Amino acid sequence: MTMEEGTSNSPSRCELTEEDYEAFQWDTREDCEVRQILDRVADKWSLLVIALLDRNTLRFTELKYKIDGISQRMLTTTLRHLERDGLVKRTVYPVVPPRVEYALTPLGMTLHQTIQSLVTWTEDHQSEIALARAQYDKRVTA
C-alpha cells in the first residue's frame, strides 16, 4: 500500500469524547486521522463530486463536464481518494471501449446529508454574510 503525500505511516488515533473535545486537537496533531479525513471531505472538488453523485451514477466524462474548472488529472485524483476512503464506488464494465461509472457508497450518502446541511445553512444566511463582507470591506478600505 502506498502512502498518500502528507500522511504518516505510524498508527495514530485521536480518540476524544465530546467532553474532551478541543477545537484545535485535529489541527495540531498532523498524524491524526481526523485531520486527514477532514482535509479530504472539505476539499472543494470532493464536495462537488459528492454533491453530483447524490442519487446519481455518473461516468467520468459526465463528472468532468459538470464540474467547471476541474482538470482530468484532478478529477482522477479526487475520485481515487474518495474511492480509497470508501465514499465512492467505481464500477468498470468489460466492454470496448471500457465504461466506468461512479456512485456514492452508503457511507458516502451519509456524508452527502451532512454536506446538504451545510449548503442549506449557506443559502439561508448568504444575505447576512454578504452584508457582513460589505461592512468589513468598507471598514478596511476606509
Automatic annotation (TrEMBL):
Lineage start: Bacteria, Bacillati, Actinomycetota, Actinomycetes, Pseudonocardiales
Organism from which the protein derives: Amycolatopsis decaplanina DSM 44594
Protein name in the entry: Transcriptional regulator
Residue ranges of every copy of the HTH hxlR-type domain listed in the record: 32-130
PROSITE patterns: HTH_HXLR (PS51118)
Keyword list, A-Z: DNA-binding, Transcription, Transcription regulation
Family matches, as Pfam families: HxlR (PF01638)
GO molecular function terms noted in the UniProt entry: DNA binding
